[in-house]
Amino acid sequence: MAVVPGFRAFLSLGRSVILQQTFGLNAVHLIACPPRRLCTLTTKSDETKPPVNTENESLLENLNLMGVDVKMARLRQPGVLRKAFTNEQGLAKFLQSKGASRKVIAGIISRYPRAITRTISHLEQRWQLWKNIFTSDKEIVSILDRSPESFFRSSDNGNLEKNIAFLTTLGLNSKDLHRLLATAPRTFSNSLELNMQMVECLEDICAELGGKDPEQFAKAVISRNLYIFIRSTKRIKTNIDILRALLNLNDSELLRLLQGHGAELLDLSNEYLKNNIINLQQKMVSLGCQTPDMKKLIISYPMVLYIGQATLSSKLDCLLKGGITMKQVLQTPRVLDYSTQNITGRLEELQKVGYDFEKNGIGILDSSRKRFVAKMEKLAALSDN
DNA sequence: GGGACCGGGGTCTGCCATGGTT
DNA sequence: AACCATGGCAGACCCCGGTCCC
């Protein structure tokens, strides 16, 4: 759709200095080996052995000294431990300079050993690109600690830069980009092509549903669902098909649903979504509801389809047991937003003060803790007087 | 003052499979 | 054959508070 070719033209302008630099230089070429221990070399005796299946002893020693869980690293990426040239010390120094603790660094290498094959210049470039979106090193360190793979999996900084440019052209502002990278950092390690495919997929869905502004639709879905880019287009398309087939919604209703909270439903695995729809249908029928009730529920509260079968059942049962009717749930479906535990606790408290749901409605269950506590205090004071 | 309505924010990695390259 | 880069998957909500209207 329109965005994609437009973006290609935009890229061809070659606006960035970094983009014009050479990427993908091999660690072997770039690492200044002396001073000693900045990198690890195989010893002569290692070289005489067949290279296959031989771990780099001096590398293992280094990693152990750094507190890396070598067993875990071996399990994850055994090949890295056999490499003759690595950059664990350079990586450690680099991360340390950004404020990462020894423990964090060890954790990163243990979980994503390939990180030690990245060169300093690669790391610096990548860091700078992330810094375009995050303001502080601390924030980046915390994400690396959370998900080392997202940062280190790709060696293609040019692709990362193109991704940032592409996502910007979608009309996502810096706050959106920040949330996107903070929440689903893998998005930025996807190939540009893959991300473009997702946008095209969303735009096509909009067009198929008779939407007039596919670009706006894609943007709405992305900012509603920050995980969208780490899903496959196959999953998204199949989920759309499932929603179309199983919900009695017309195209414009479905379009509206997807631009609202329904966007998050696209994340669910196909089977899970399908099962949840079927289960909700059965549950509602068993509780005496009609098809229009279900449609109304899904439109007003799409996240009902996010709730797993067991959780939904226990939530509804607990509400009904507490004297609440299905009609009231349909009127205030957001009570289902709260955990079963929370609902149970509140129902108990309300029962103690003889709260009349018929008279007052059930809105009190859909309120923040602070507001609920304040309300309960008032009710207690009233009953004291 | 209080309830209804509604938008937003937190959170999501670690593993496996695969195809291309060396 | 080994290794690398990348795609894809499973897993499965809960809560807060601003604002408007009565």
TrEMBL record:
Protein name, per record: Transcription termination factor 1, mitochondrial
Organismal lineage: Eukaryota, Metazoa, Chordata, Craniata, Vertebrata
Compartments where found: Mitochondrion
GO CC entries: mitochondrial matrix
Protein's organism: Scomber scombrus (Atlantic mackerel)
Subunit structure comment from the entry: Monomer.
Entry keywords, A to Z: DNA-binding, Mitochondrion, Phosphoprotein, Repeat, Transcription, Transcription regulation, Transcription termination, Transit peptide
BP GO annotations: termination of mitochondrial transcription
InterPro entries per record: MTERF (IPR003690), MTERF_sf (IPR038538)
Gene3D superfamilies, per database record: Transcription termination factor 3, mitochondrial
GO molecular function, one term: DNA binding
Main function: Transcription termination factor. Binds to a 28 bp region within the tRNA(Leu(uur)) gene at a position immediately adjacent to and downstream of the 16S rRNA gene; this region comprises a tridecamer sequence critical for directing accurate termination. Binds DNA along the major grove and promotes DNA bending and partial unwinding. Promotes base flipping. Transcription termination activity appears to be polarized with highest specificity for transcripts initiated on the light strand.
Family: Belongs to the mTERF family.
SMART domains in the cross-refs: Mterf
